[in-house]
Amino acid sequence: QVQLVESGGGLVKPGGSLRLSCAASGFTFSDYYMDWIRQAPGKGLEWVSYISSTGTTIRSADSVKGRFTISRDNAKNSLYLQMNSLRADDTAVYYCARRKVGSSSCDYWGQGTLVTVSS
Amino acid sequence: QSVLTQPPSVSGAPGQRVTISCTGSYSNIGAGYDVHWYQHLPGTAPKLLIYGNINRPSGVPDRFSGSKSGTSASLAITGLQTEDEADYYCQSYDSSLSGSVFGGGTKLTVL
To answer: Rounded to an integer, what distance in angstroms lies between the CA atom of residue B54 and that of residue B37?
Structure first.
């Protein structure tokens, strides 16, 4: 069965960095586009970034451009989000999600990992 | 403020029908981009309910249906059940932002 397991969240000071990972299993990872989506406390879902199956196409939300970088290692069935220059408003649960083939929808999501940016 | 506008809350009694609207603009829904719907229970992974405006993934009951017209879309839930109580989000693509956008979410309460 499809599984997505995020890791790497935690408490970090403003201006700091963190790298999130998402381990995928139960499907051919290299065939799928992948997304990072976040939810700040008490807020709605916010799309962060996506990466194509080969990693050649990347798009990111304006709120994270220049600070966050999505990447993937198809040999390791893993998705990553490198987060630099973190701010308090980056505090959120970060989900990795698989894009349904031929669609911009996400058909499988992980349970999320919490990132807290605070001094 | 979200690019896609949803009502903050809706409610209904068990067995009733409710609809949740998602209003966008000519750079997203009105441009012809697909609308998708998710159900989210706090502390769990969001679940895809409707993709491509009207399609249900396997396993999603036919009590859930989607529609789209102009710059808006709607999610309808018939035969409300207590387990439907959750947050619901619409999603589309926005050409001016060159990325996905979500609605602000709607909390469904089953009375």
So the answer is: 10
* Residue partners of B37: CB distance under 8 A and separation at least 6: B22, B48, B49, B50, B64, B66, B75, B88, B89, B90, B91
Between A and B, how many residue pairs show a Cβ–Cβ distance under 8 A?
67
Sequential DSSP letters for A23-49: EEESS-GGGS-EEEEEE-TTS-EEEEE
The gap between the terminal CA atoms of chain A, to the nearest Å, is 40
Q: Which DSSP category does A69 fall into?
A: E
Per-residue pLDDT tens over the stretch A105-118: 999 999 999 999 99
Helix (H, G, I), strand (E, B) or coil at A76: helix
φ, ψ of residue A118 to 5 degrees: the values are -160, 150
Nearest Cα to Cα of residue B39 among A17, A105, A89: A105
Give the tokens for residue B37: 């719907």
Alpha carbon of B34: minimum distance to chain A alpha carbons (Å): 8
CA–CA separation, B46 and B109 (whole Å): 17
Residue B48 has pLDDT above 90, yes or no: yes
> What pLDDT score was predicted for residue B2?
86
Main-chain phi, psi angles of A89, to 5 degrees: -80, 5
Contact B52 A105 (CB under 8 A): yes
